Amino acid sequence: MNKTGFIFDLDGVIVDTAKYHYLAWRKLANELGFEFTQEQNELFKGVSRKRCLEILLEIGNIKASQEQFSRWLVEKNEDYLSLIEEMDESEILPDVLKVLQFLKKHNMPIALGSASKNARPILEKVKLMDYFDVIVDGTHVAKAKPDPEVFLIAAKQLGVPPKDCVVFEDAVAGIEAANNAGMLSIGIGEEKVLSEAKFVFTNFTKMDDKFLNRLLE
Ligand code: BG6
Ligand code: MG
């Protein structure tokens, strides 16, 4: 398929931080007097912090002033940061390293394309910084996934045309963003959820060298 640029989402692809985001949002919801379920949390995947809070308040049917809204955003992030404080390499998802090392061995450039403003500290905690030639995160983009902006910036910085890039994503909005960017989308998760992806793997343990070689050839 002749691919020469590789872009990874972070949350849910490299590390399972979705559970920590969920706990922090649930705490806020409970404080505000309502429940927030795991199913509802699916809607938050790939979505910016601000948009998540808007959805949360819609679920709880709560109106907030600008000031309250900003305060809750800070509070959620502080709770999230304390949940990930102790995070280390053991939280890298299975066989992520195998794929990163395969790509490095073949001198392929690698980028991170994440909606999270916490992406850099997380990569540092799990000691993966050295694998990434380019990092584009929530501090660099104006338009959230499914807008292709985050991936187009990553491709540009890698110096690879979008059509030659591959995107690994666990979120529906992220797959759409990759498709909108004209890139090859690979879903990491459930096929029925990520049906718009070109290929879907439950996780990286299911992606063998044969498939990885096909991407390069
Ligand atoms: C995405 C997550 O990667 O980052 C979302 O899938 C999250 O759930 C978003 O809301 C923003 O993250 P952060 O760390 O900037 O609050
Ligand atoms: Mg994700």
Main sheet: strand order: 3-2-1-4-5-6
CATH architecture label name of the largest domain:
3-Layer(aba) Sandwich
What kind of assembly state do the chains in view correspond to?
single chain
Portion in beta strands: 5-15%
Number of strands: 6
Kindly report the name of the CATH homologous superfamily of the largest domain: HAD superfamily/HAD-like
Secondary structure class reads alpha/beta
| Uncertain ranges | none
Radius of gyration of CA atoms, rounded to a whole number = 17 Å
Main beta sheet: 6 strands, parallel
Structure ligands: 6-O-phosphono-beta-D-glucopyranose, magnesium ion
Cofactor: Mg(2+)
Active site: 9 (nucleophile), 11 (proton donor/acceptor)
Site (Important for catalytic activity and assists the phosphoryl transfer reaction to Asp8 by balancing charge and orienting the reacting groups): 114, 145
Protein name: Beta-phosphoglucomutase
Structure summary:
This protein has 217 residues and is an alpha/beta fold.
